[in-house]
Amino acid sequence: MGRLDGKVIVLTAAAQGIGRAAALAFAKEGAKVIATDINEAKLQELEAYPGIQTRVLDVTKKKQIDQFAREVERVDVLCNVAGFVHHGTILDCEETDWDFSMNLNVRSMFLMTKAFLPKMLAQKSGNIINMSSVASSIKGVVNRCVYSASKAAVIGLTKSVAADFIQQGIRCNCVCPGTVDTPSLHERIQAREDPQEALKDFLKRQKTGRFATAEEVALLCVYLASDESAYMTGHSMVIDGGWSL
Question: Could you give all domains of the chain from N- to C-terminal order, each with its CATH number?
Fold first, then answer.
């Protein structure tokens, strides 16, 4: 018996990083996973695994989301992972940077939740997991202005949905990782003038001396998706190796 047997999970940003690790972990525990991303080539790699079907989806496009939601008969868990990390202070953040980050990091979760929540309400049960960050209302982080603002908004959105629908069988929690060893992290490191120095800077802030793995974060998502966390809603689950201490 898997911990997620019989559950249908819709997952965004599943092509790589935390999203990919979550797709594999969900499927391993018996869930039927509908994995979405805009990266069709990377996404198709998941089809080799039992229990995973894929769908190309741009979570910034309302029409695409609404059409996708109409095609899904049942959803037990919605896991919103899509996001982007902008580097810089408020002075380095142009209006276009702000709009892009808020659109992908917050508005996409708003659109996905609004599209799938009515199905959950009709079922009288549902579970939403949003990917936030320690860089949010939890901890001030240098050079993460719009990213932190957007991830703080995700925490607020999570608590609002949890409070509004708790008596209708809906749970909503968010995951707040620290620095995670993902392709996205390595892209950001390589984009710096001195990648080796950037890597050292990232590691310095981790009291454990290492980054989290995407698989470690995925296991927390499995717990939140399972009935083991049935009495938990409206919480920000920190998994950061002590960075926020």
Answer: 8-180+213-239 (3.40.50.720)
